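ugh ok fine here u go
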Amino acid sequence: MTRDSRITLAVPTRDRPDLVARFLVPGLIDVTARGFAAVVVDQTAGDETRALVEPIEGVRYLRSPPPLSRGRNVAVEAAATPLLAFTDDDVAFDGGWLERVAEAFTAPETGAVCGRARTPEGELLPGRPAGTYRWPANPFGLGSGFNVAFRLAALAVAGPFDEELGAGARFRSAEDSDMLYRILRAGWTVVCSDDLDIVHHDQRSGGGLVRLHHGYGLGAGAQTAKHVLSGDRTAGRIALAQALRHFGWAARSLATFRPGAARLQLVYVRGLLRGFRERRAQRA
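structure:
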């Protein structure tokens, strides 16, 4: 089979072989059947995931310890194409999606491309409007690690994913927004598209959503502290605007009798402040 030399699909996974079997394996089969390369970075202790993905022709199976950001760095080092797309093990996708991702890198200055997600019921999840974003755009909510692709040349300039950020790390999110921020700051653009949607099978609700939003804030605060401490005042201004935006959303939610939604916004801000304080103390 002729292999497509433009883009590689990378999927870090940890301790979720049931999701790998249900969502990732069908996607990998379709992607590799279309000639694309794929890398699965397994951070699981056992061999269940390996047994599922290693037999698929065109898939390179690798192992890595946590956190998620370390798995992303392993995938970057393994990529042999100029473009690298990331998704998650609880996402439904096909080779047509990856083809469209590769085609979105039309301009040579495009350093990253971000797609959208839908629920299994077809509802489009919140995301940034389609367009081309330049420094100093707000990186929070610009894209997500389950549907983002990078030009390897941009990653080489920005440096590796921050292994103190992301799932499994001390600050359990923001390795994706931090990378987008550094790519923008280095002079590349980020393209957001509504034509690159995937289906995200995330079933969290109630307390799980509260912990998720606190984690989002925690990572955002840690990301901000890192850049502010290195002399980047723009990062601080962006984070302040982000916090005020969440306060505004909380107020509107309360005004429309949605206390649960308001709580999520305030939990995010509390996490942001905590992440900023803790990473600043860590660097002091």
